[in-house]
Amino acid sequence: MNCEKCGERLYGRDETFGRHSICPRRIRRKKEAVRIPRKGVNELATTDRHFVDAESRVMLDGRELLFGKDWDARKEELAQRSRGFCEAKDQPLPEGKYCLGLGQHPHHVIPRSEKRDDRLSNLLHVCAEHHRSFHPEKQTRFTQKEKQTP
């Protein structure tokens, strides 16, 4: 008998059920997705969260490191929290710039380079202008070479 979901051949007493939960293909896929233990990772909290991406994890100090579909899901949660509006509307911008009002970019309050934390409490949903003002070190600067006089 074959599995009713994927068509894989079932052997032994499992033939009578035809369920996908006991299908050899499903069991193989589960074995491939086994997580490799990492230093500083809270394995219990990581398995409780049921992350989709194998790289996503919860650290011992509570920080979340999200990748792939888990990061995309977190950005969706952030957009729902802000209802699509910029959460930094009250913060001033450089002269000549104005807030567009629509949140499009996730911004880490504590920078990712210092201590990466993808929890919702460390994220703001901001417009492009506010995001540029938060990261002045990433702005392109055009300078002219000084002319050398002979």
Write the layout of secondary structure elements.
Blueprint: H1 24-32, H2 43-49, E1 57-58, E2 64-65, H3 68-82, E3 105-108, H4 112-115, E4 123-126, H5 128-134
Antiparallel strand pairs: 1-2, 3-4
Summarize the biggest pleated sheet: 2 strands, antiparallel
Count of distinct strands: 4
The rounded Rg comes to 24 Å
Number of helices: 5
Q: Would you identify the regions where 5 or more consecutive residues have pLDDT less than 50?
A: 13-18
Structural category is: alpha+beta
Q: Which descriptor suits the 3D outline?
A: elongated
Largest beta sheet: what is the strand line-up?
Answer: 1-2
Structure description:
This protein is an alpha+beta fold. It folds into two domains: about 1-35, no CATH class; about 65-140, no CATH class. About 30% of the residues lie in helices and about 10% in strands. The chain is built from five helices and four strands; from the N terminus they run H-H-E-E-H-E-H-E-H. It has helices at about 25-30, 45-50, 70-80, 110-115, 130-135, and strands at about 55-60, 65, 105-110, 125. The chain has a two-stranded antiparallel sheet with strand order 1-2. A hairpin with a 5-residue loop joins strand 1 (about 55-60) and strand 2. It is elongated and about 85 Å long. About 15% of the residues are buried. The model is unreliable at about 15-20 (pLDDT under 50).
Task: List key phrases describing it.
single chain; 150 residues; alpha+beta; 2 domains; two-stranded antiparallel sheet; 4 strands
